[in-house]
Each structure stands twice: as structure tokens, then as C-alpha cells.
Specification:
65% of the residues lie in helices and 3% in strands. Strand 1 and strand 2 form a beta hairpin. It is built from 3 helices and 2 strands. The protein has one domain. It has 129 residues and is mainly alpha-helical.
Length: 129
């Protein structure tokens, strides 16, 4: 009985986080913020759902598979989010107009695709000059 209650709570929290990630994809203004919503809320949602599955079934095989999925998600999501963000920045996807700081402005060499030293100018995007 307690396993069912704990599993239901974890499933509900996971589903709510997945819903939040979906709303973030629809409502957030640029690719970088959308990516943030999916890489954080959806990841935690999937992890909670997998933990709920492991708790509910209380079987070594199911728990091992669920934890394998959790480990895979934890290892792959940050890398993929970084690569998508980097590709978007390199190709010139515009930042949201309300973005205040572009930490890569003046530091990113477009030919070698490497970060260089200190920024050449102020990193404040909305600052005139």
C-alpha cells in the first residue's frame, strides 16, 4: 500500500515537471531558454517517473532498467543541451531582445570555434555603444 502511494506521488510530480517543460517549450521566447526548460524540468520529470516505476514494481530487473535509464539521461542531457546551444550560437540564432548579458560576445572566434581570453568589449547586450 505504501509503495503505491509513494509511486503515485512520484508519478504526479514527474508528470507535472514534464508538463512544465512542455509549457516552457511553447511559452519561452528563444531557443536558449527553451533548451533550459527541457534540459532541466523534463530530465527531472523522467527521473521521478523512473524512480516511481522502480518503487512500484519492487523488482530487481525493473529497478536495474529504471536506474540504467536514469543514468543514461543524466549523462546525455547536459551534453546534448550544450551542443544544441553551441550550434545555435555559432549559426547566429538571435538571443531574446530582453537578454542582458551575452558572455560569449567578443570571446568567441568564429573561424576556430574556440573561446578566447577576456571579452573585447562590454558583455551587456542592451548597453549602447
Amino acid at each position: 500500500m505504501i509503495q503505491t502511494v509513494i509511486s503515485a506521488i512520484l508519478l504526479t510530480l514527474g508528470a507535472l515537471l514534464m508538463l512544465l517543460a512542455g509549457i516552457g517549450i511553447l511559452r519561452l521566447p528563444d531557443v536558449f531558454l527553451r533548451m533550459s526548460a527541457t534540459s532541466k524540468a523534463a530530465t527531472l520529470g523522467v527521473i521521478l517517473i523512473m524512480v516511481a516505476t522502480a518503487v512500484y514494481f519492487n523488482d530487481l530487473g525493473v529497478t536495474a532498467r529504471a536506474m540504467g535509464i536514469v543514468i543514461f539521461i543524466i549523462l546525455t542531457v547536459p551534453v546534448s543541451a550544450h551542443m544544441i546551444g553551441r550550434a545555435a550560437y555559432i549559426t547566429g540564432v538571435p538571443l531574446w531582445p530582453e537578454t542582458r548579458i551575452d558572455e560569449l560576445k567578443g570571446r568567441y572566434d568564429e573561424e576556430t570555434h574556440r573561446l578566447e581570453g577576456q571579452p573585447a568589449e562590454s558583455t551587456n547586450v542592451n548597453q549602447p555603444g
